Amino acid sequence: MNFTLHFESVLAESDLILRGIMLTIWLSATAIILGTLLAIILVALRNLGNAAVRFGVDSYVELLRNTPFLVQLFMIFFGLPLMGFRMSGTQAALFAMTLNLSAYATEIIRAGVDSIHRSQIEAGLSLALSRIQVFRYVVLKPAFAKIWPALSSQFVLMLLASSICSFISVPELSGAASIIEQRTFRSFETYIVVTAIYLVLALALKIILAWLGHWLFRRRVKIAPLVTIKEGIA
């Protein structure tokens, strides 16, 4: 079998590829920020709310974590207009990515919050801090320090899951690849290029998140050896 790769026609569509990359980065970054903020709110409601609120948060998390992202995307893009809520493909993609990420991030952050010892919470309450202040200043940052690697992995998965948004004609990287494939008829070469770009984006995001975690929680890393030394002396 004689088969030769020809990337010239694919690389000639570099402008379309670049626009797809920029839209993928924008969708992922915005969904990560909004999804994380929503997850923090949901965890706070679950911890500080009554039984009905906790049931509502748990139901939301289980619904989104146990249904396919593609189905959620279709429900938002095709279903909401029937209820009078019209949005573009990009808006629907961002909305779906934010909701999906928030459900997974809620469960990850909840695990970190549950790992905080009860004595630390009681110490905060004994200093006349409100429950919201205790959650913000005593619980949240140590919890994030513990679950940051797991949360970072979920962020990378969300970046890769953005490719599903091409199913509703969002011109992100996978959507751009589909257009290039139709124009050039070079399927293999197109997806080799796109695969390489996704790999670079995922690795770059992992490095950025690792650096961000080191910067945000560096004091915790520096204090830990001192605590160990004191315990050894005692």
Features:
234 residues; MetI-like fold; 0% strand; mainly alpha
Could you characterize what this model shows?
The protein is 81% helix and 0% strand. With 234 residues, it is mostly helical. The longest helix has 35 residues, at 14-48. The N and C termini lie far apart (74 Å).
Mean pLDDT: 87
Query: How far apart, in Å, are the first and last alpha carbons?
Result: 74 Å
- Overall structural class, as computed from helix and strand content, comes to mainly alpha
CATH topology heading:
MetI-like fold
Percent helix: over 70%
How many distinct helices? Answer: 10
Q: Could you say what the CATH architecture is?
A: Orthogonal Bundle
Overall structural domain count: 1
SSE layout:
Blueprint: H1 8-11, H2 14-48, H3 51-65, H4 69-79, H5 89-114, H6 118-126, H7 131-161, H8 173-184, H9 187-216, H10 218-233
Helix pairs in contact: 2-3, 2-5, 2-7, 2-8, 3-5, 4-5, 5-7, 6-7, 7-9, 8-9
